Amino acid sequence: MAFSIETRKQDIKALKNETVDVLIIGGGITGAGSALQASASGLKTCLVEMQDFSEGTSSRSTKLVHGGLRYLKNFDVEVVADTVQERAVVQGIAPHIPKPDPMLLPVYDEPDSTFSMFSLKVAMDLYDQLAGVTGTKYENYTLTKEEVLERQPQLKSKGLLGGGVYLDYRNNDARLVIENIKRAAENGGRMISRMKVIGIAHDENGKVSGAEVEDLLTGETFTIKARTVVNTTGPWSDTIRQMDDQTDVAPQMRPTKGVHLVVDKKTLSVDQPTYFDTGRQDGRMVFVIPREDKTYFGTTDTDYKGDLKHPKVEQADVDYLLEVINHRYPSANITIDDIESSWAGLRPLIATNSGSDYNGLSNQTITSESIDEVINMVEQYQQGKIERYEVGDVLKNIKKANSETETDPSSLSRGSSLEIDDDGLITVAGGKITDYRKMALGAVKKVIKILERDYDKSFELIDSTSYPVSGGDMDPKKVDEETEKLVQVGVDKGLSHSEATYLANLYGSNTPKVYALLNEVEQIDGLTLADSVSLHYAIREEMTLTPRDFLIRRTNHMLFMRDTLDSIIEPVISEMARYYNWTDRERNKYTKELEEAIAESDLKRLKGDVN
């Protein structure tokens, strides 16, 4: 089924004459997951997003499906168990996107270090048990100082004690969103980007009955009628709720800004993802991740009160990250001029959670005596002096004291909330990418209950733990083998091995649909054959409406392929202009938008390289 601008026109026409079961506001990962579950369960579903899908927050993460090892510093077992189990679910339903990529965690002899070598090993062993990888090739192991430096010679050697390696997963956040969106569209959902909510509609009883929207492509306004409305707008959650004149709710969001910087691999050579204390005794940790011949690092975590739509990388962000990275990799001597691209995103944190838990900071305290007791018990267990269940009893007691209470019905996952206002507006907020499916599940369950209670409509909720996203129809245990088969098909069709590998990893089980375009799409002058068919697939099957959509979110050209970006800009714009029959004004508009996005990513303002 096509998912294109023509689909968009048809969906808008239909929406003017129908009432949907659920209207989802917000096309980030939580909204996309909610739309997939709702549409797959038979609900007449509509999702609207004022920008491109995933443009706000869900394309601006650290691009990991992170397991939360650091929570185990405080033995917050419940949180880590929940996170790693959910991570396994995501890998199962989107096997072409999250990929295992073991993480190195070097340990330094410094004040306030997150881990010692002993506590890291204890944490990693428990982590493996929770993740179910004990005894597999992904089981953790420790490294001596010399072994760490052999892997990463640029790392600072002074104070280095050794390190540990444990399982984590790299992610393509924007691809995860669009694959959920596409599956929802395949199920009959009406998924519409560039559609801004400008008001909440109510029936004669004051209950939510839809939303007034503005089509940002045409300027037209109309009302989408809906039996239920779910607000999944992340940092904009308060904005939507305050639009609702039938309720008076206090703001709950406390967005923080996270910044990531990208340099060439030759500048900072890192062979595997690495995670370490900043060395500033500020309680934070930083990631350094290799990707596509580049290395990126982050993140910052600062309160944000600016324009939610356009968070920017500021000088203070760059200074902080460069200080941390150059401290840990002294020979790198990275300067702002080495930065090839960057991104800034907002985390939709909830103010009542007492700040960010992004790095595993527990929102509830745990006493030193309790930590000492657990370490002592683990030592005794390793020495064979006590039984495993005795360690479990201690951990269980700490878990009860240190995690969210079971009596809190609004808590769906760490740092998330589900609230229903008096007029029926449902808001899902907070959380992390790893938890998106569970957050969506909680919202759709509420929607189904309301539809049963108020409209006598019955639905059977799908099992979303085994329902694949678009492109995910692959055996999660044989992803490499199935991907290689797809690569060979592409080679047989005339693609180079590298081109076919790129497409197969990007599109998963949808790769044959991309290959099918080889029969009708001529190679575009200035683009590779792979990029030519990728662009057309993005336009025809992924609601790619602007060059920014394609170069930033459908692919990673702007972030991780900066070397070749400049050479493909004009061919991409020209082909999209031809396909969409843009006027000169439209072409100039989209060209300017792309130029501004690239200048922002390149940090031209901070480098003084502005016209």
UniProtKB/TrEMBL annotation:
One of its GO terms (biological process) is glycerol metabolic process. The keyword Transmembrane helix does not apply. Residues 21-351 form the FAD dependent oxidoreductase domain. Its cofactor is FAD. This is Alpha-glycerophosphate oxidase. It catalyses: sn-glycerol 3-phosphate + O2 = dihydroxyacetone phosphate + H2O2. One of its GO terms (molecular function) is glycerol-3-phosphate dehydrogenase (quinone) activity. It is an enzyme of class 1 (oxidoreductase). Keywords: FAD, Flavoprotein, Glycerol metabolism, Oxidoreductase. It holds the Pfam family DAO_C. InterPro entries: DAO_C, DAO_C_sf, FAD-dep_OxRdtase, FAD/NAD-bd_sf, G3P_DH_FAD-dep. Its EC number is 1.1.3.21. It comes from Alkalibacterium kapii. Belongs to the FAD-dependent glycerol-3-phosphate dehydrogenase family. Residues 466-586 form the Alpha-glycerophosphate oxidase C-terminal domain. Transmembrane segments: none annotated. It comes from the Bacteria.
